[in-house]
Write a structure and sequence with these properties.
The chain has an eight-stranded parallel beta barrel, surrounded by eight helices. With 241 residues, the protein is α/β, with parallel strands linked by helices. It is 40% helix and 30% strand. It starts with a strand and ends with a helix. The longest helix is centred in the first third of the chain and has 11 residues, at 63-73.
């Protein structure tokens, strides 16, 4: 089970939102590169970088920072936030992204998604961002006419083997992950899942690790690390045991 620290960027700062609400933001650092280096030193093997400005506007706004993180850490990372066309996917891969995260465009445009999958394959991964079993889009401000499971089944049929699943109601809340929702997604689709949202304690990681045999591939951790609920070293040790 891969432990993936999250770096959420807004106005050039490292922030966390509460349930995706842009009005409930907490700034953790004015130096995203320093934060990335910190996670690299701590033993992280992969980073999850989100451009919140891009997610809300429809085009990435912090690519200069992404480029600097890539150059100064050499760490593999995935990037999401405002990726709405194939040209941007190519641009991000050229910048050094290991894979590009698609959210809004993936949920709303099946033809685009098919083209992206055909061109990039596993260099793209879809993030199913859901609340109450329904998929949300456009920086989590709008709803798509799809349920989590229906969308996941569409992705499986298209050829995807792995997805990111974020429970928006848990994200940034430190209230614990949606274990039932994650388990249902694993059991109903057969997809590998990277879980995101709600992790608050090592106990949460322990519970998630029990889903490894069912296909849980990784966990994205944000606020719990920034708030010092546990260290990255502790999380990595638990995931390796």
């Amino acid at each position: 089970m891969l432990i993936i620290p999250a770096i959420d960027l807004r106005n050039g700062l490292v922030v966390r939102l509460f349930q995706g609400n842009f009005d409930q933001e907490k700034v953790y650092s004015a130096d995203p590169v320093k934060v990335a280096k910190r996670w690299a030193r701590g033993g992280a093997k992969f980073l999850h970088i989100v451009d919140l400005d891009g997610a809300s506007s429809g085009a990435p706004k912090n690519l200069n920072l992404v480029k600097e993180i890539a150059e100064k850490t050499g760490m593999p990372f995935e990037f999401g936030g405002g990726v709405r066309n194939l040209k941007t996917v190519s641009q991000l891969l050229d910048l050094g992204a290991e894979r590009v995260v698609l959210g809004t465009k993936a949920a709303m445009d099946a033809q685009f998604l098919k083209k992206a999958w055909k061109k990039f394959g596993e260099k793209i991964i879809v993030s199913i961002d859901a609340k109450g079993g329904k998929v949300l889009t456009q920086g989590w401000n709008s709803g798509a006419a799809k349920t989590t499971l229906d969308f996941a089944r569409e992705l499986k049929k298209m050829g995807f083997k792995q997805v990111i699943y974020t429970d928006i109601s848990r994200d940034g809340t430190l209230s614990g992950p949606n274990i039932l929702g994650i388990r249902e997604l694993l059991e109903e689709t057969g997809l590998k899942v990277i879980a995101s949202g709600g992790v608050a304690a090592l106990e949460d990681l322990f519970k998630l690790k029990k889903l490894e045999k069912q296909g849980l591939a990784g966990v994205i951790v944000g606020k719990a690390l920034y708030e010092g609920r546990f260290t990255l070293v502790e999380a990595l040790k638990l995931s390796a045991d």
